[in-house]
Specification:
heterodimer; A: 139 residues; 0% helix; B: 335 residues; alpha/beta; TIM Barrel; eight-stranded parallel beta sheet
Amino acid sequence: MDFVAYNEIMICNTPICNVPVSGVVIGYEFRIKYPSYRGCFLSCIEELYFEVDGQRLSETEVFFCLNGKQFTIGELPELFREYWFIRDPAVIRVLKPGGLSKGEHTIRVYMKHRVPYTGYFGTYLVLESDRMETRSCEG
Amino acid sequence: MKEDIRIGVSLYSLTTPFIHGVLDLEGCLKKVHDMGYKGVEIVAAQMVPEYPFPSDKWLYMFRGLLEQYELEPVCWSAYIDMGTRTDRDLTEAEIIQYTVNDLIYAKKAGFSMVRTQHAISPAIFRKMIPFCKQLDMKLTIEMHWPHHPEVPVWKEYFKIMKGEGKGYLGFVPDFSIFQYMPHALYLRQAIEYGCRKEALDKIVKIHEEGNCSFPDNPAERETYCLKRIEDGDFTEIEKHYAAEMFGKFNHPARIEQFRDVIDCVFYIHGKFYYLDNDRHDPCIPYEELIPKFVEYGYKGFIASEFEGHHFYSEVDCEEQLAHYVAMNKNILDMI
């Protein structure tokens, strides 16, 4: 199967960081990259969800940050002018009062994404990238 | 003449170190320079940080890097990202806009050729001629698997390339169209996904026998192969790989199909997936292809295009490229 090896880059090898606002921790962040050999328009992401420590996150508690902007997951299908460069991490910001505890946590990312140049037979190749990694939270 | 053939490189071959952050774009240029390459291709959607709207500042910086590393800009590879939008495909006006942009960006970065994809359509391809003439740029369409010169739309493309687009419009055969056997990384992955080694060997043997028994009839060959799988003792995943293998590698293009269109071949993608030696690719018949392209009169670059990075990240692309260059040198020396 083509494209499979690119899933390795999807969850960045960087720590999870809690997000303080005026001394109050409102949530945490981790980084992901687009799992392919080239970048994509965000509109090509057909489904994206996350599990942290086995718990699926609801869309309302997740923000997708890229190119200096912040988007909701629901906005992604409309973002056909927003390009995700293959080496740029997107920051996934999760609202969770108090953030995550210091130590290791599992992150699972599931992404269903359309390869936009493959539609010449009438349907587009749609890939499913599914990756789980353990990352540490620095508290 | 064989002296008219030059072996270049697509920076796409360095996908693994690039996407893993081991090499940045300048690192890739330095790497291919150090390997002795002169001509390079860039896949803009992959390596241009400001894609799809790179600034003049970035384009001229990139041009300077190419000069610094003594590299000849050969091909700017573009896409027809028809499915960019969720609600509809790109319109003709949008495809023209993106393609004109690529011609302009390529020109500014010092390239004289843009590679696009066959989804551009004959009508739009024809409409690009004035832009190509104005900018003195070549526009080429990649002929990629599963296409080959007998596919009807290519007859239309050849007519345009040989007619009103002569000298400006051409095509880029990707040697994947000649692939007749599954590569080593594909087979390794099949085993990791659950195929039994002995069953996979049997499937490959059936595939080989099918190719030998029905050399000129891909449909009959596929039916024959699938029937043997149905009658055999194979698991679901083995059947899946068998069907994929028979469908993908049982109707390679024929080299003689290129004799009459060689004047439209402006560039070649020397696709390969895995080489464990300097002499022979067991999947793509380089020993036949290179002498025939020389005989037919091809002049230009063959880009080393390693694509094993789709399957495994630990395969060393530098080692693969070294095998590829040596193999082609050996073949050219034999002519």
